[in-house]
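Our platform keeps sequence and structure together, in a single record for each protein. This encoding replaces a full spatial description with a residue-level series of whole-number codes. We quote a single record here, exactly as it is kept in our systems:
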Amino acid sequence: MPFTELCIYQVQPQKAEEFETLMTEAKSFLEQQEGLLLLRFIKRGYHIDMEQIKEGLPPLQLKRIVKSVKYMLYQEFDTKESYGIAQKNLYNSYWKSIEKCLIVPHDKYLGEVLF
């Protein structure tokens, strides 16, 4: 059963460009991790409320940055063990540079794929 991580990064607005460049550099490193099945990097740029959902309207684009620029990194691995090794490799390479761009430590949500 595949094992996944969804990582939420809250980046200082003045460091957003630096963070995106860093993650672009880290992409090829991340893609080389043994057991990696899927990798996605997303920048939050839209929001939706219940009224829009009820009406079937598309999400609205964010117009301003309030506190931070939010990013999500989704990784899917073949096993928990492959995931663990990949995290160690990331920690030993890009982790400190990533953390310097954040306003708070990143959140990790981990679990096995159900469907």
